[in-house]
Write a structure and sequence with these properties.
Blueprint lengths: L2 H30 L1 H8 L3 H28 L2 H21 L3 H10 L1 H4 L2 H9 L4 H12 L1 H20 L2 H22 L25 H6 L4 H30 L5 H32 L3 H21 L6 H14 L4 H11 L5 H16 L2 H11 L2 H23 L3 H17 L2
Helix pairs in contact: 1-8, 1-9, 1-10, 1-12, 3-5, 3-17, 3-18, 4-5, 4-7, 4-10, 7-17, 8-13, 8-16, 9-10, 9-13, 12-17, 12-19, 13-14, 13-15, 14-15, 14-16, 14-19, 18-19
């Protein structure tokens, strides 16, 4: 690989990192704004949950459509369209004066939330299997860092510039700006270009979307375990994203400064956990095809244990609570980059966006209802009970599904490498 091409692929990673960082800031900031938005519209936990479920439901419905489009057309141009939609729908959401209008426009922000499969598959065509975990870990740093920036915007900046609507205008404008960076700055890459079997080939055969190969996704047993863990695994993330700040304020008595100084270090540690998970996954994957699954299963198990210990810590024991939350943050994201990389370890290049989109569709199919289910449990009991119940059950199921994938990953990975080798010989 030439030095120029090597530098350019990291430029692409940089552009996508900032896209994800600012998009996640816009998407996740609403969790930190639960109290002021609820006060603006006079709503309860259940109605708040419905606001967040609406965007998740829209994203769920559109995942298969985005996945199909990414496998058929230029991914970079579609990503620039997604960035424009993000900016426009955030502005619409900011101007709404009624709860009904806010509910509908917030749901519309889910249109672009389902646009990530194209981003990850385009990156997969710049980087080979042994590097993908690290690169995805770097990109996924954007999620917790975006959460942190959103928290700062919500708790510190918003009160200074006129309230929560003003910060929505800022993040929406940034989406429009990034549209231009992606459209003019990111080049399309031939599908499958970074597979090791095609590494030294001067010209690449164009792999086009195939319904036959799309159907083959569902014949891979590893993908079914990936789907099942995805359905359960996103429940805790959505519960924590949309309710944890309300939990800290209402049930643990934290003010804005206490929330910021407690959660900012936790989120920074969480960010490091994404890269750590990807790096560990790559390291173990070089030794065994089971490597990414081993890292993922350890992450969900230890994350569940430490979150339970944190939530059940007495309110007055703030230092103990902080320590357990930091430990949760180390292990909670270990599986994230590895799940994406595992999908590409067993599927052919021309249907990877579709495979990733189906995985996200299944994830959001469950997660879309997580906020409203949490709201119902919280109104009936309390937020502490809702968080413990949903997170413990969901991560326990994920651990079981990962154990199942350990028995199928070798076969499915070997089949893909064989298929790629056969294609290389025929060129």
């Amino acid at each position: 690989m030439s030095e120029e091409r090597s530098r350019y692929r990291w430029f692409v990673v940089g552009v996508f990192f900032f896209f994800m960082l600012l998009h996640q800031t816009d998407k996740l900031m609403i969790g930190s704004l639960q109290v002021p938005i609820s006060e603006t519209f006079g709503i309860n936990n259940q109605q708040w949950g419905l606001i967040n479920s609406g965007a998740l439901i829209v994203a769920t419905i559109l995942y298969p459509i985005w996945g199909y489009l990414y496998d058929r057309y230029a991914r970079a141009k579609l990503l620039s369209l997604a960035s424009f939609i993000w900016g426009a729908t955030t502005w619409l959401n900011a101007i709404m004066k009624t709860y009904g209008g806010f509910l509908v426009t917030r749901a519309s922000t889910g249109i672009d939330d389902s646009s990530y499969p194209g981003l990850f598959t385009l990156v997969a065509d710049y980087f080979g299997p042994n590097l993908r975990g690290k690169v995805y870990g770097i990109l996924q740093l954007a999620q917790p860092l975006g959460y942190l920036i959103g928290m700062i915007l919500a708790l510190i900046v918003a009160p200074m510039i006129g309230g929560w609507r003003s910060v929505f205008y800022i993040t929406g404008a940034l989406g429009i700006v990034l549209t231009l960076f992606i459209y003019f700055g990111v080049k399309e890459m031939p599908r499958g270009k970074a597979e090791p079997e095609f590494e030294n080939m001067p010209e690449m055969q164009t792999f086009k979307f195939s319904w036959h190969e799309a159907k083959e996704i569902f014949k891979k047993k590893t993908m079914w375990f990936v789907f099942l863990q995805g359905f359960a695994g996103v429940f805790p993330w959505n519960v924590i994203t949309y309710f944890f700040f309300g939990y800290l304020e209402k049930e643990r008595g934290y003010d804005a400064n206490s929330i910021l100084f407690t959660m900012a270090p936790v989120i920074l540690i969480l960010a490091g956990g994404y890269f750590l998970g990807g790096a560990l996954g790559d390291a173990f994957f070089k030794r065994t095809n089971k490597g990414r699954i081993i890292v993922s299963s350890a992450g969900v198990l230890l994350g569940a244990i430490f979150l339970y210990l944190a939530i059940t810590t007495p309110v007055e024991a703030k230092n103990q609570f902080f320590i357990f939350m930091c430990l949760t943050a180390v292990f909670m994201p270990l599986s994230s980059a590895n799940v994406i990389a595992t999908v590409y370890d067993v599927t052919v290049p021309e249907v990877r966006s579709t495979a990733q989109a189906v995985e996200y569709f299944v994830e959001n199919g469950g997660a879309a209802f997580a906020p409203i289910i949490t709201g119902i449990i919280a109104d009936a009991l309390n937020l502490q009970s809702a968080i413990i119940l949903i997170c413990s059950v969901a991560w326990g199921l994920c651990f079981i599904f990962y154990l199942g994938a350990l028995f199928t990953i070798d076969h499915d990975t070997h089949n893909l490498r064989t298929q790629m080798a056969e294609r290389a010989k025929s060129m």
